[in-house]
Design brief:
Blueprint lengths: L10 E7 L3 H12 L6 E8 L5 H6 L4 E6 L4 H11 L4 E4 L5 E2 L3 H11 L5 E10 L11 H4 L12 E3 H7 L10 H11 L4 E13 L1 H4 L2 H20 L2
Parallel strand pairs: 1-2, 1-4, 2-3, 6-8
Antiparallel strand pairs: 4-7, 5-8, 6-7
């Protein structure tokens, strides 16, 4: 792992959005509110048909990219390939960063050059009127567990590209696949003890629950095949 070139490296924050006007401002503002600088915020509109584009354009801090609808994996990849930062972070349009998230993660990577990426713990937030998802262990998630999701990830650019872009064959579990590929590649990672991400659970993201479970199993099987072929 190479040392970062600066004590305040540029962080590129990638926010993919598809018809997320209801939540998007909250996500963007949670990035802007971070004390750490410098950052660039790249919001990738994955072919939204709602007012997401209008929301993005309200923020002069945001770089706006548009693509025809291809899914979150493709949108994240587009943002990452356009990013200028030595470090790359992701935030789903319906999630929120808590205060100090970026600063703590950047400091950790500066102090630990052997670490390729760092995640944090998360707090699940259930939207009013939504039942707890049957696929999630409530006892586990209410303990604010480690967040193996893009919204908690800060990764060195060279590490992200070395592991490879998000696999667009996965419509919903491309994140699980990426973390498994990073593990299989021997990338060292760390988990900060602080709760620095709010993961919002609502009716829209629950509509993909079955697909996520099925695709996650596909990603696990792919990981097992990689290990067998070593």
């Amino acid at each position: 792992m190479t040392l970062l070139r600066s004590s305040t490296p540029l962080v590129s924050v990638i926010i993919p959005v598809y018809n997320g006007e209801r939540y998007l401002s909250r996500a963007i503002e949670s990035v802007i509110a971070q004390e750490y600088r410098p950052i660039e915020i790249i919001v990738v509109d994955d072919g939204s048909t709602d007012q997401s584009a209008r929301v993005i354009r309200r923020y002069q801090e945001c770089i706006y990219l548009f693509q025809q609808n291809q899914g979150h994996a493709s949108a994240r990849n587009l943002g990452a390939l356009k990013a200028q930062g030595e470090l790359i972070a992701f935030l789903d349009a319906d999630d929120v960063w808590l205060s100090g998230k970026l600063g703590l993660q950047v400091r950790y990577l500066l102090e630990h050059p052997e670490i390729g990426y760092v995640i944090t713990h998360m707090r699940p937030i259930i939207e009013e009127g939504v039942d707890w998802p049957s696929s999630l262990n409530r006892a586990y998630y209410t303990k604010n567990p480690p967040c193996y999701l893009p919204s908690a990830l800060l990764v060195r650019r060279e590490v992200f590209l070395g592991v490879g872009l998000f696999d667009t064959r996965y419509r919903h579990a491309c994140d699980s696949d990426w973390f498994l590929r990073a593990k299989d590649a021997g990338v060292k990672m760390a988990i900060l003890p602080e709760v620095l991400v709010e993961k919002h659970i609502h009716s829209s993201n629950l509509s993909h629950e079955t697909s996520v479970t099925s695709e996650t199993m596909m990603a696990i099987r792919a990981s097992l095949r990689r290990k067998e072929n070593r």
